[in-house]
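agent> fetching stored inputs for the 2-acetamido-2-deoxy-beta-D-glucopyranose docking request
agent> found them:
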Amino acid sequence: MARWQLFLIATIAFYTTDGQAKSAASSRSIASERIGRYKSLLTEHFALPRHPYLNEVNWIKARSAIVEEFQKILHNVPNVTMEIQDFQTEISFVPNLSTDIKGQNIIVTFSGKNRGKATDEILVIGAHYDSEASPLISIDDNGSGVVAMLEVARGLADAIVKRKAILLNTIMFVAFDIQNEFSDGLGQTGGSDFFVKEKLATILDEQPKPGFLGAIVLDSVMNYNSSAGSQVLPSGFDKSFPEAFGQVQVNMYKGNYLNLVTKERLRSLQLDYVIAQEWNKTDTQGQFPLIQLEIRRTAASPALFEFLKQDHVPFWNHNNNPLPAVLLTDTSKWRGVQRMCGLEVCNSTSLLTVDRLNMLDQVVVTLDRFISISHLNDSAAIETGSGTSTYASLSATFLTVLVAYLL
Ligand SMILES: *[C@@H]1O[C@H](CO)[C@@H](O)[C@H](O)[C@H]1NC(C)=O
Ligand SMILES: *[C@@H]1O[C@H](CO)[C@@H](O)[C@H](O)[C@H]1NC(C)=O
Ligand SMILES: *[C@@H]1O[C@H](CO)[C@@H](O)[C@H](O)[C@H]1NC(C)=O
Ligand SMILES: *[C@@H]1O[C@H](CO)[C@@H](O)[C@H](O)[C@H]1NC(C)=O
Ligand SMILES: *[C@@H]1O[C@H](CO)[C@@H](O)[C@H](O)[C@H]1NC(C)=O
Ligand SMILES: *[C@@H]1O[C@H](CO)[C@@H](O)[C@H](O)[C@H]1NC(C)=O
Ligand SMILES: CC(=O)N[C@H]1CO[C@H](CO)[C@@H](O)[C@@H]1O
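agent> prediction call returned; pasting tokens
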């Protein structure tokens, strides 16, 4: 069968679920309430740099704020656990001078009905909570990802408690400590690496072996700038990502989009496709284009390596069993002015413009919709629709996309 025919089938399967996903997403809470929560969380806990070496107090405060917020969200939610994963690593803030650091990942697991069965399809949603030493960048990088993750968890908790939706498959929310590599190029083993090797690997080895749907990593998702020319591209971008390069050019180098980073020959293609579909359905005005970047082995360049530093990479590199994962990112320092305060430590709440908060909300609503079609049986809550058929058509879509990809 031709590829376009298969995609057509996928599109039809999705069309049938559209109304339901929308009603599920919009019934949870209104946008102005969500925006209010983003503002207060970002202002109170993520406005200052949280570098483990240089801003230890803020770093530890941010960690407790995440735990407290999760405790509020998880209150009364059945079958949920929160655990702290301790690990020890080294960071080199100055070249060749490493410091031992004790890190902590915060892991929240919503066990689905299929937990402990081979039919489970575990989904991970993760974001790192430490930051670089740079003051201004830290509210976006990666306060925005953490706040989006918390809001998605809150939406899921509401669906389970208030709408009585049934969670079919397991979802893990992980706040990673110690990002994998600081953008100044000093490599280190970060929290996501310890999570994949020491936590996720154990769960995926349990008998009977569960499936793994993938990981969605959020790293800087709020830096919006609609001025032409505000987007700068790292060197070699045109070679590594020719299609995306064309899209950025046509878009007049506006920094108004988000990148969805994926990798060739990995099952993440299924994730990409469904996320992009749900993104497009949420962004009806086309205010926040989604530009896909596919990492290809044959197209190495400095630009390619810019997208191989974040927390999705340990999933891709897992042993001999690469795990599907995608990265959602605004490209952070490559866009607009991120460092207005220079080297001085300042409060970066001036970055919280309406457009930026709306872009953050676009991420949250897209992931809500993704979860509601991939993981929830909402039929108890939505009388007219059937959760079973929603779930079935998502599986059909995944299968279809996979077949199309293999052809
Ligand atoms: C919690 O998990 C157990 C075991 O999987 C299951 O029997 C029970 O129905 C779940 N409770 C809820 C409210 O989902
Ligand atoms: C760091 O160590 C490497 C080799 O271990 C050496 O080549 C390099 O010059 C050192 N850099 C500095 C700044 O000392
Ligand atoms: C957008 O980026 C331009 C640089 O291209 C900068 O001059 C401007 O201040 C930025 N706007 C915002 C709101 O950050
Ligand atoms: C989403 O919209 C973009 C821009 O209109 C389009 O290029 C892309 O194919 C769409 N993706 C999906 C999966 O619908
Ligand atoms: C940053 O500034 C805002 C508004 O001026 C204030 O409400 C907030 O408490 C400040 N945050 C920190 C961490 O100082
Ligand atoms: C979804 O829930 C309905 C009603 O509670 C139930 O009949 C159906 O079997 C469930 N579907 C799945 C896939 O669990
Ligand atoms: C320090 C770090 O890893 N920051 C990353 C945050 O996200 C941006 C955009 O993806 C990356 O460019 C940074 O490297």
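agent> quick read of the result: The longest helix spans residues 140-161.
agent> awaiting further instructions
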